[in-house]
Specification:
Chain lengths: 384, 134
């Protein structure tokens, strides 16, 4: 596999969030326009320089067409890959491929959702078709029920405890207290997680991500274009992606995510080792998502995830800084969270994170997860 | 919000399956070429890609692969909570989503289960499972 570390093909040069949390009166196009304008300003680029557009969502029959029209962009290259919350990590990987092929120089990647204001989640549909018909009539609440099935099996196989899962929620909240944009900032303890309402055993309310509105945008530029950006480039050193199933029933092994493959390829492409990673941004739709991902990425062995996150190791001051913005558990989670992993990783590598800055962060791993542990997309990012 | 019960939109893949359940038969497919069992039903074998697949009646016995107790449910399921949703692995080697009925204490991963046919609506029978006491 080619080693991108030495090649410096493309970089993230601009990132921004839109308004986050509860955004009544704002629609998904406004949120994405707001984020796109701010990300371009962050990069020091004009809209006219954008020649590729990437977005994912279910707010239009063809989100790319509606978004590009709204923004006034006629792209040379367009990609609407939708593999759930990890779509945006894949968009970055696909942008690198397109840039390497010489097809475009500057890509705009956006996401927006008003799911909290819409209260649009979990509306059961009266008719279920195709492969959904064999499952939806049993009433498993998605997505939490699927993740609960995975957590239950991990506990059964390895003795993983609810306390260990709670360590993740508590550590993530500590990071959120350092981020003024985080939705939930009051400190919590392990007992708060364990005493929070049971949603789907073994997952409690505080094992689950937030439901917020919000949007984000990321600008990816070729090395040539990155040279004229306002900010220092955050190089995209490695990428891997895969999807293993759509429905949780068809997950080959309920405790092993596709990050085992996507992570391996991303690390190989980057030519870096786990020890070199300074900061980890790991999709945290649920606490179990993080635990399974750490194992699958190879930061620990299968079954060791519980021990790995114990003792607040991933909290501020711990030796494995993770989800430093407060994550989907405490900062924001508008349905598909993956773009926010990228925004935080870029800011950490640019040293812009103030109180929550990981000292001298040079290399970050970003892992998106989509669907019900269905898709994973891993990136290794680094600065000069 | 109660909402409507989600009903399968029966198609030519699924018709033998749903019709079997109406007759209290759990039907799955088997590949004529590699002989592996297949669930959910489909046009071709996902293992060897043969399009020679046949219907067979499953034993209805299996083991709980994983389960969850749902405490917060939505729509028509809200008032049923708490209830147990599981993935059951049949003796034939295929997995399916289901409900487990019976005493919560007996429900655990690895427990042996047997199918039962639950008429959840006038026009819908679902395969539920119960733990076999050994
Ligand atoms: Zn076959």
């Amino acid at each position: 596999m080619e080693n991108l570390r030495s090649e410096r093909i493309a970089a993230i040069v601009g990132v921004a969030e839109s308004d986050l949390g509860v955004t009544p009166g704002k629609n998904v196009l406004q949120l994405q326009a707001q984020a796109a304008k701010a990300a371009l300003a962050d990069a020091g680029f004009e809209k006219e320089e954008v020649d590729a557009i990437f977005t994912a969502g279910n707010w239009a029959w063809s989100p790319n067409l509606m978004l590009a029209e709204y923004l006034g962009i006629q792209p040379k290259y367009t990609d609407g890959t939708n593999i759930g919350g990890s779509s945006f990590e894949s968009h970055v990987g696909h942008a690198v491929a397109g840039i390497r092929a010489g097809l475009f120089d500057v890509a705009l990647i956006t996401y927006g959702s008003t799911q909290r204001s819409d209260q649009s989640r979990n509306r059961p549909t009266p008719v279920v078709q195709l492969t959904d018909q064999y499952e939806r009539p049993f009433g498993l609440p998605l997505t939490v029920g699927a993740y609960a099935l995975a957590a239950m099996r991990h506990m059964h196989l390895y003795g993983t405890t609810s306390e260990q899962l709670a360590e993740i929620a508590v550590a993530t909240r500590k990071w959120a207290t350092l981020n003024e944009k985080a939705f939930k900032r009051e400190p919590i303890e392990i007992k708060d997680v364990l005493e929070s309402r049971m949603i789907a055993e073994p997952l409690h309310l505080l094992d689950c991500c937030l439901v917020t509105d919000g949007g984000g945008a990321v600008i990816v530029a070729s090395a040539r274009a990155a040279a004229r950006a306002k900010k220092k480039p955050v190089w995209i050193l490695g990428h891997g992606e895969t999807h293993t199933h759509q429905s949780i029933v068809n997950m080959p092994d309920l405790t092993v995510t596709g990050a085992r493959e996507s992570g391996k390829r991303a690390f190989e492409m980057a030519g870096v080792t786990h020890d070199e990673i300074d900061v980890a941004e790991i999709y945290d739709s649920f606490t179990i998502t993080v635990l399974l991902t750490l194992e699958a990425l190879g930061f620990c062995q299968p079954g060791e995830g519980g021990a790995f996150v114990s003792g607040q190791r991933t909290a501020p001051g711990g030796d494995f800084p993770m989800n430093t913005n407060g994550g989907g558990l405490s900062y924001c989670h508008p349905g598909m969270y993956g773009i926010f992993l990228l925004i935080e990783a870029a800011r950490q590598l640019r040293g812009e994170c103030g109180a929550r800055q990981v000292e001298n962060a040079r290399l970050a791993v970003v892992n998106g997860t989509g669907g019900v542990l269905s898709s994973t997309s891993t990136l290794i990012l680094g600065r000069d | 919000m109660a909402g409507q019960f989600p009903k399968p939109l029966i198609d030519t893949d699924s018709r033998p399956y749903w019709e079997g359940l109406e007759r209290q038969e759990l039907r799955i497919q088997q590949c004529d070429d590699c002989h592996r069992h297949i669930f959910y039903p489909r046009l071709l074998c996902p293992h060897c890609f043969s399009d020679h697949v046949s219907w067979t009646q499953a034993s209805g016995r299996g083991q709980i692969y994983s389960f969850t107790v749902v405490h917060k449910a939505f729509g028509p399921f809200a008032e049923q909570a708490p209830f147990v949703v599981a993935i059951v692995e049949l003796e034939e080697g295929v997995r399916m989503m289901t409900r487990i009925v019976g005493e919560r204490e007996t429900i655990q991963i690895g427990a042996s289960v047997q199918v039962l046919y639950e008429k959840v609506e006038e026009d819908l029978v679902l395969p539920y499972f119960e733990v076999i006491r050994t």
